[in-house]
Design a protein that fits this description.
alpha+beta, 19% strand, five-stranded antiparallel sheet, 42% helix, 19 helices, single chain
């Protein structure tokens, strides 16, 4: 065993300083890069990982040219009478530069794996970016950050090439363990080389083992221990610098939206107003519904337009106003609820509050009792059912009494039974909510049950807006009829003022309503087709036709019947109309001889236009 243990102490102090430097710089750079976009991101990222892919001697040479007496930084240090070269400080700098990419890339990956919805919903709760970092980003990324720190420590402990170039190999001054191993091998002292190799291996493996042990204990204990409610930092109210202050309660109420945003596949152009009644935003997947909500919430920025809430301007492209999410007084409920996984139910609910924990306790208890979550305040989101998670997310959105509530397909993750139960609960909540609410969905029945008014979106355009009864019963265009569930369409060829021919249905129809000047198609809803008794005659009523069954499709409670008019079907795909009936009606129909008599009520016929631009 060698008597000179200075390489151990030098290595420990070098790697300690190097790890601290790479930790601070790597963590800061990684967090900045997560929120950086643009053409320079790839270049900056490449520069950050360059020390990892370059030979250590090249890194040492570059540092020597930069920090040496003739280097740019070296000349400045000489003027300050600071000499870094061939000191242990130089070894620490060399090790920090070499280990920085490991810390940076690991921390970057840890930050990038955080669900962006968690950060976005935190902003809508009025939380500052500083608090989001300390209470969300850092805790959620902590295992990855700790792993990066351990890797940086182990890599710094074994650094050789860059240290030799910049600090040299001065015994008792700059000789680290790797340099001591090199010197022992050069001198033929195998025993000393093995000794230092065992030391460095033991330290590295111990650091990795301790890290893995801590992560495992953290994951195990997170299910059993309650996180202590922390007092949020007290923030002094600050005046809004780039946007006007909130309007007083007596100001005009409601939501006004007129925005334009360019998307990859189409342009989102929407103009509407919302009031106390719940407005449902209905459309197919990819129609722009969620993007619209994100623009209103301040998560995405429109290219142009105006957004006002209760007389207060939230966004105005012409005046350069764009109020941050945290100051818009908006509650947002995501599809996946975006509950903070490392916080308890109680902490999730009051995350956006600034009161002392002792002051929050009564409010937490009241919220939990009101939502049927009594006794669950100490549980974590993964310990809750889907319905319980939704209640918690809704309570978190409402506890701050937002002026606007945005619901982005809140039932998409629930099963059929739980969806029905949660719909009833949400309906009661919205009935008592004293603000404006928007519900995004592509479910027709869900929108009809929960919303009084509807906005129909199709490829970024609002093609209909109004009361749900008006839109469902009197759609004006083919797109609106299709999006509201109509399945039967045919081209329309006017014959007389009161009749038209539907070639796709092979029948002539009598109409009672006035035709639009640009009549293009006629539609009829599948569930409104009536089946007449076999004794009825076609001449007794207009729009009565013989029908043959071509095929059927079954659901748990309904049957879809594919019907061919005036003649038998030649194959299952040879049909004109779809009819929907309950199983009880089907039990009566299936035993009746064909053809059946069907009736298309003239009052239920939809006379539709099909303009090229259906935006309203």
């Amino acid at each position: 065993m060698p008597w000179d243990l200075s390489p151990l102490w030098i290595s420990l102090k070098v790697v300690a300083v190097a790890t601290l430097l790479s930790f601070g710089l790597g963590l800061t750079m990684a967090y900045r890069m997560v929120h950086t976009q643009g053409r320079w991101r790839s270049l900056i990222d490449g520069l950050c990982i360059a020390p990892l892919i370059l030979p250590p001697t090249v890194v040492g040479f570059v540092l020597l040219q930069l920090l040496g007496r003739r280097g740019l930084v070296g000349r400045l240090l000489q003027q300050l009478q600071v000499d870094l070269i061939f000191t242990w400080y130089a070894g620490a700098i060399a090790a920090a530069v070499v280990t920085f990419p490991l810390m940076y890339r690991t921390a970057l990956a840890a930050f990038e794996q955080i669900d962006g919805n968690l950060l976005q919903v935190a902003r809508t709760l009025g939380v500052s970016e500083w608090r989001i970092f300390w209470h969300l980003s850092l805790p959620l990324a902590l295992p990855g950050i700790l792993a990066g720190t351990t890797l940086a420590f182990a890599r710094g402990l074994g650094e050789f090439g860059a240290t030799l170039m910049l600090a040299g190999n001065i015994p008792g001054v700059t000789t680290t363990i790797p340099l001591a191993i090199f010197a022992a091998v050069e001198a033929g002292d195998t025993a000393e080389a093995w000794f230092w190799s065992a030391v460095i291996l033991s330290i590295s493996l111990s650091a990795i083992a301790l890290t893995n042990l801590w992560v495992a204990q953290r994951q195990r204990h997170s299910q059993n221990f309650r996180l202590v409610l922390r007092r949020p930092p007290v923030r002094r109210p600050t005046a809004l610098r780039h946007y006007p202050p909130p309007a007083p309660p007596s100001a005009a109420t409601g939501l006004v939206v007129d925005l334009h945003k360019t998307l990859p596949d189409y342009d989102l152009r929407v103009q509407f107003q919302g009031d106390r009644q719940t407005l449902g935003i209905l459309g197919a997947s990819g129609a722009g519904k969620s993007v619209l909500l994100r623009c209103i919430a301040g998560i995405d920025t429109p290219d142009a337009g105006l957004i006002m809430l209760n007389g207060r301007v939230l966004f105005d492209a012409r005046r350069g106003i764009n109020v941050p999410s945290r100051d818009r007084h908006i509650g947002l409920l995501f599809q996946n609820y975006a509950l903070f996984p490392h916080l308890t139910v109680a902490q999730n609910i009051v995350f956006g509050e600034r009161d002392r924990p002792s002051h929050l306790a009564p409010r937490i208890a009241a919220q939990l009792a009101a939502l049927g979550l009594k006794g669950l305040g100490d549980r974590y989101p993964h310990q809750l059912s889907g319905g319980q998670q939704q209640r918690v997310a809704l309570a978190r959105a409402l506890i701050r009494q937002p002026q606007l509530l945005l619901l982005d397909e809140p039932f998409s993750a629930l099963d059929t039974h739980l969806r029905s139960q949660m719909e009833q609960e949400l309906s009661a909540t919205l009935e008592n909510y004293d603000g404006t609410s928007l519900l995004v969905t592509h479910n027709l029945e869900e929108a009809y049950r929960l919303c009084q008014n509807l906005l129909i979106l199709d490829a970024g355009r609002a093609i209909a807006t109004g009361s749900k009864h008006q839109i469902f019963e009197q759609p004006q265009t083919v797109s609106v009829a299709r999006l509201t569930g109509c399945k039967n369409f045919s081209a329309a060829q006017p014959q007389t003022p009161q009749t038209l021919f539907a070639p796709d249905w092979n029948c002539t129809l009598t109409t009672l309503e006035s035709r639009p000047p640009d009549l293009a198609q006629v539609g009829f809803r599948a569930h409104q087709i009536q089946f007449l008794p076999a004794t009825a005659l076609p001449r007794h009523r207009p729009n009565t036709f013989p029908a043959w069954l071509a095929a059927t499709s079954e659901t748990p409670h309904r049957m879809t019947l594919y019907l061919t008019l005036h003649r038998p079907a030649t194959h299952p795909g040879d049909y004109h109309l779809q009819a929907e009936v309950f199983k009880e009606k089907w039990a009566q129909l299936k035993d009746q001889p064909l053809p059946w008599l069907i009736y298309l009520d003239p009052l239920k016929l939809m006379l539709l236009s099909d303009p090229q631009d259906e935006s309203v």
